[in-house]
Design a protein that fits this description.
binds 6-O-phosphono-alpha-D-glucopyranose, cobalt, globular, 16 helices, Rossmann fold, single chain, alpha/beta
Length: 436
């Protein structure tokens, strides 16, 4: 292992980046990061410059010896990187607003990563990520790519299937679940063990343990009693206690979109009429954040960043860097190929699960028998995901239509077709390869 680490951050102009910088600065005693190269596209140059200047002030404040580079030169960023982190959004927040609004026109959930919104995001993102992978294969073939780019599970599976890059997909939802459950159980987060398995934004904690005791039923009771179990970007629709008891596993906050479709759709429609979808709120928060980041006296991550949904994302990724670099063999929840972990699913299907991570990579942990209620939903969403990846790679209208028709949130093929045509029209600039 090298004694110095270079991190390349693709989508470095994101408003989340200060959290990543803070995470690096907190871990310097065991992660010798000496270079961070932030890269973005031309349209993001202004934000990139602001983030880079803030990064330099943060580094200087703690007296760290880290070279901060920021450029539009992706190849220079990737060259000799040890870790490549991806956190970009093709089409920016306007594309997200479209993803959230189009399905609503057809009475279907409009969400950034779940349902047709996530499908549209995947179509825009997969060709770009595969292009990035070609640069990594050529310029940093030993680098680990940590993928945060949404829809993280789908994008990670596309990388696994269509490139030779060593990749691990990551999400902040499992860490957030860990924090929220620890809080409701009044125990330090590191004393709580969760056995997680499912797909990205569709992950269940099948068992929760504290000090050798199985506390799953107690946690389910507290969630059913209305204790906080949501994230900033998701309506906190109360859970039905009888349903949770019958399910017997702790759902993630995103499960509300599948299990409480009517209520979530009604909430989305009401808020779209009032002030727009989540993308509009995030646009306002971003404007405020970049104003703060531009202040030359600011040399730390501002508190206001916590109003975004991505809490703990830097902990999730830097703890993983730590586990790989320092060969910790610790447990993390990651997106990796199934390889027999869920016996009924293809080996190359990417799942989100607890796994042991060391310098050699990731080994998923099986949780044993899963009820048909759980495997049924996993299989249906995985079928949608696989068809989406093939549609994106082949530019295939037929596969895209079958992907949407297979998504559990799209109840009808007439609507699936109308939504698909709307998505293709609206995203014309980003889908030049798509053919009918
Ligand atoms: C959660 C999800 C992320 C998503 C984020 C959106 O944290 O796990 O995948 O990107 O929310 O937050 P935002 O503030 O952009 O709505």
């Amino acid at each position: 292992m090298t004694k110095s680490l270079k991190l390349a951050i693709i989508g470095g102009g994101s408003s989340y980046t200060p959290e990543l910088i803070e995470g690096v600065l907190k871990r310097l005693d065991h992660l010798p990061v000496t270079e961070m190269h932030f890269v973005d596209i031309e349209a993001g140059q202004h934000k990139l410059d602001i983030v880079a200047a803030l990064a330099r002030r943060m580094v200087e404040k703690v007296g760290a010896n880290i070279e901060i580079n920021a450029s539009l030169d992706r190849r220079a960023a990737i060259q000799n990187a040890d870790f490549v982190m991806t956190q970009f959004r093709v089409g920016g927040l306007q594309a997200r607003a479209n993803d959230e609004q189009i399905p609503l026109k057809y009475d279907v959930i409009g969400q950034e990563t779940t349902g047709p919104g996530g499908f549209a995001k995947a179509l825009r993102t997969i060709p770009v990520i595969l292009d990035i992978c070609q640069d990594i294969e050529a310029l940093a073939p030993d680098a680990w790519m940590l993928n945060f780019t949404n829809p993280a599970g789908v994008v990670t599976e596309a990388i696994q299937k269509y490139s030779r890059v060593k990749t691990i997909g990551l999400c902040n939802v499992p860490v957030s679940m860990q924090m929220m459950i620890a809080e409701m159980m009044s125990c330090p987060p590191d004393q709580l063990s969760l056995e997680c398995i499912g797909l990205n934004h569709l992950v269940w904690a099948h068992r929760a343990w504290i000090g050798g005791q199985d506390v799953t039923a107690e946690v389910l009771k507290k969630v059913g009693d209305g204790q906080n179990f949501s994230m900033n970007n998701i309506f906190e629709e109360p859970w039905d206690p009888d349903f949770l008891n019958a399910l017997g596993a702790i759902p993630c906050p995103y499960h509300r979109y599948y299990y409480q479709v009517d209520a979530m759709l009604a909430e989305e429609k009401a808020s779209a009429l009032e002030g727009g979808t989540r993308a509009q709120q995030v646009m306002e928060t971003e404007a405020e954040l970049f104003e703060l980041y531009s202040d030359e006296n600011l040399a730390e991550k501002p508190k206001q960043l916590e109003s975004r949904g991505g809490a703990y994302y830097s902990d999730a990724s830097l703890n993983l860097v730590d586990a790989i670099y320092n060969d910790r063999k610790t447990i993390h929840v990651v997106n990796v190929p199934n390889n027999g972990t869920i016996s009924s699913l293809d080996d190359d299907a990417v799942i989100e699960c607890s796994a042991v991570v060391g310098s050699w990579g990731v080994r998923p942990l099986a949780v044993g028998h899963l009820s048909p209620a759980i495997t049924g939903l996993i299989h249906q969403v995985k079928a949608y995901e696989q068809l989406t990846i093939e549609a994106a790679v082949e530019g295939s209208y037929d596969k895209a239509l079958m992907a949407l028709a297979s998504n559990p949130l799209v109840p009808d093929i007439t609507r699936a077709k109308a939504i698909l045509d709307d998505i293709l029209r609206t995203n014309d600039d980003y889908l030049p390869y798509f053919s009918r």
